[in-house]
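Running log. JK asked me to keep both predictions on one page so they can be read side by side. First protein, sequence followed by its tokens:
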Amino acid sequence: MKKKAGMILACIIIAASGLYYFLKDEPLAQTPLEQPKDQQTSKLAYVGNSIVEQKDGKPLWELKAELIEIDVDTKNVQLKNLVGTFYQEKGGKIEITAPEAFLDSKTKDITMSVKVQATASDGTTFTANEARWSSTEQKVYGSGNVILTKDDTVLTGDKIESDSNMEKIKVFGNAKVVKGGVSR
């Protein structure tokens, strides 16, 4: 009888141990925190492409650059070593270069900087430290060491404002006009 009671006690202990094993709370395996993925770049870069703005099927301007970066969120565009062509209403065009440029996607204004140089098809030349093309006004603004040469007239000043045909020109700050200078 003692042997039978010992066997029952042993079975109860083994069953209780097994039951304890299956029901005990095991700590959950530590899963590593998910590391945030590298923040994806919010810019798209293009090499050797161009951007063209058209109205009624006619090109208004075309911008080419060594590197074009487009912000995915804002759609604003950064251009390195810009070579642009602005088409004038009367059929002419203005070729413009700038080491850096920025195109605002909402206003379509183009801001150019470092050393901006432009040549119109009628021979007019323009240089400035910075320039901005206002899409809504169809005007060019320049600032910093502005020099505009048209026919035999040389205009210099701190700032300049011109229509897209470079026919109506205003010079501000230290404005100087020299007539009979360089002629073609």
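And the second, directly underneath as requested:
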Amino acid sequence: MEADRFEEAERTSLGAIRIANEVVAVIAGLAATEVEGLAGMSGGIAGGIAEMLGRKNLSRGVKVEVGEREAAVDLYVIVEFGVQIPEVALRVQENVKQAIESMTGLKVIEVNVHVQGVSFPEAQEEQRVK
């Protein structure tokens, strides 16, 4: 079970370097939320449109599959009303790919963006008041 959670990226003369799948998911989630026009991450299909991403769970709405040298990422996102969704999704794909590859050395073969909702300004105001 422990081997499933970790990806052995490299074995050196000093030992192995292992990166947990959760680490890749956190990197992807954080990189995605840096993109302007993205309101937050969704909890996935089962949860429907979930509440906005906070710093508590940075891997929310992120599913990763990590192989020996490659990774694939699925992101479930909520965009802000009025943005061009294809442009935001493309920037999310680029930012996530760059962040994972530069931080882990893994080759990202695909970043799938699943837009599951639109956030309206009124909804954001209500969340600030709470």
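Observation for JK regarding the second prediction: The first strand starts at residue 6 and ends at 12.
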